[in-house]
Amino acid sequence: MNPARPAHGLVTLRVNGTEHALDLPAATPLLAVLRNDLALNGPKLGCGLGECGACMVLLDGRAARACTLPLGGVAGREVTTLEGLGSVAVPHPVQQAFIHEQAAQCGYCLNGMVISTVALLRRCPRPTDAQARDALSHNLCRCGTHVEILRAVQRAAAA
């Protein structure tokens, strides 16, 4: 056992700008904490193996898979979920682009697509189509809205 990370105890993290002190096992998956303890349902449980991207969050501004991150590993770091990007009244520019392009069908992958796009645009404000495809290549979508998703990325980049 790593003495820097107790097996159980108070873990503090910042989610969507709000600090939370949680008395949970350090090995608890971040996704479970977000959904079950903080009632944030943007990140979804897909594969549970870090393969599909449905659980994506921003961790210190970079895209990360919440299903594979232990709570103890994110202590003291900034976590942003889909809910922390914008609101129904004032959506984030990426959310607005996805809405405008109707880039969702079932919506299950949408969280990961939006989060990955936000992370991409932070590091590359004007991505090429190839860069957008590469950034989204680790997010699985089975509905077939890939063309609309790529249009949404370019619309958000232009906004």
Brief write-up:
The chain has helices at residues 30-37, 93-100, 110-123, 129-136, 146-158, and strands at residues 8-15, 18-25, 56-59, 62-65, 78-80. With 159 residues, the protein is α+β, with helices and mostly antiparallel strands. It has a five-stranded mixed beta sheet, with helices on one face.
Shape descriptor: globular
* Order of secondary-structure elements: EEHEEEHHHH
Please count the beta strands (DSSP E, at least 2 residues each). 5
Unreliable runs, pLDDT <50, ≥5 residues? Answer: 1-5
Characteristics of this structure?
159 residues; alpha+beta; Ubiquitin-like (UB roll); DNA polymerase, domain 1; 2 domains; five-stranded mixed β-sheet; 5 helices
Tell me what you see in this structure.
This protein has 159 residues and is an alpha+beta fold. The chain folds into two domains: 8-84, Beta-grasp domain (Ubiquitin-like (UB roll), Roll); 93-158, DNA polymerase, domain 1 (Orthogonal Bundle), CATH 1.10.150. It is 32% helix and 17% strand. The chain contains five helices and five strands, in the order ββαβββαααα. It has helices at 30-37, 93-100, 110-123, 129-136, 146-158, and strands spanning 8-15, 18-25, 56-59, 62-65, 78-80. A five-stranded mixed sheet has the order 2-1-5-3-4, covered by helices on one side. The longest helix is centred in the last third of the chain and has 14 residues, at 110-123. The radius of gyration is 16 Å and the shape is globular. The protein starts with 7 loop residues before the first strand and ends with a helix. Mean pLDDT is 91; it is low at 1-5.
